[in-house]
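Figure 6 in text form: structure in, sequence out.
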């Protein structure tokens, strides 16, 4: 581990290159402007930011607020550094597709390089409830135009996770599984359908929602006329977080409006 507080720009450049060559995690707090060119283009004026360069070549640049980076590059970047006109220039170049993130640094407040040991397995603890909430918050996760009518709808064998109507007026019956859906999920959904009826001239559309299907289940679904929509716990949590931020922004706007 090497830590530097308020290093001169040339010293910061040397230590930065040492850290990159040793494939260390590099954490910097610095005043910089940022330019991106690639799929689109963007510019960000000067400000104090937290910059993280990881050993796999990815880049994260954070402002004072929000957990999401304002700029970032995926793994595989090649780094270039130089001093030019009294500024430290750091370029993160992604070869394919070609993208360049350029940081023009006027001052470095902190620079640390770390060799992290982390081989633990990541296990996401969540439930089908989060998947259900995500679908209720954003029905387009299943398909555009889906309207939710009910959830936990009571039928004789149990409860239908999500119950809705598609753009053609067909009844959509959704069974959610947080693990790869097997034959038992198909049987469960088939049992529910015995107690449900679509409006005259319309049809029932049974859909299983899960991260994936167990081996050999797809032919069974196709034979029974069931549909499958992939949805992971991670995507569900990201959807809920997005809607939570939107709700907070709306609430903040409401308070600002009522105070005027």
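Output sequence:
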């Amino acid at each position: 581990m090497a830590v530097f507080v308020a290093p001169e720009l040339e010293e910061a450049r040397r230590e930065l290159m040492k850290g990159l060559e040793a494939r260390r995690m590099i954490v910097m707090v610095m005043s910089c402007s940022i330019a991106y060119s690639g799929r689109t283009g963007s510019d960000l004026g000067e400000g104090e930011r937290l910059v993280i360069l990881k050993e796999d070549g990815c880049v994260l640049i954070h402002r004072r607020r929000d957990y999401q980076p304002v700029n970032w590059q995926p793994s595989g970047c090649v780094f270039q550094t130089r001093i030019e006109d009294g500024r430290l220039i750091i370029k993160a170049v992604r070869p394919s597709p070609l993208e360049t993130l350029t940081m023009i640094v006027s001052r470095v407040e902190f620079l640390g390089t770390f060799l992290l040991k982390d081989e633990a397995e990541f296990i996401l603890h969540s439930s089908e409830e989060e998947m259900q909430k995500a679908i209720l918050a954003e029905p387009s996760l299943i398909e555009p135009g889906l309207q939710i009518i009910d959830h936990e709808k009571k039928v004789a064998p149990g409860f239908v996770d999500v119950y809705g109507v598609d753009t053609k007026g067909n009844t959509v019956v959704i069974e959610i599984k947080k693990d790869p859906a097997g034959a038992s999920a198909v049987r469960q959904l088939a049992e529910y359908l015995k107690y449900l009826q679509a409006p005259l001239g319309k049809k029932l559309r049974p859909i299983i929602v899960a991260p994936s299907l167990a081996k050999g289940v797809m032919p069974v679904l196709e034979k029974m006329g069931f549909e499958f929509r992939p949805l992971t716990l991670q995507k569900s949590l990201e959807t809920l977080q997005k809607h939570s931020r939107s709700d907070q922004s709306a609430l903040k706007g409401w308070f600002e409006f009522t105070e005027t």
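Caption detail: The helical segments are 9-21, 128-137, 183-193, 217-224, 233-259.
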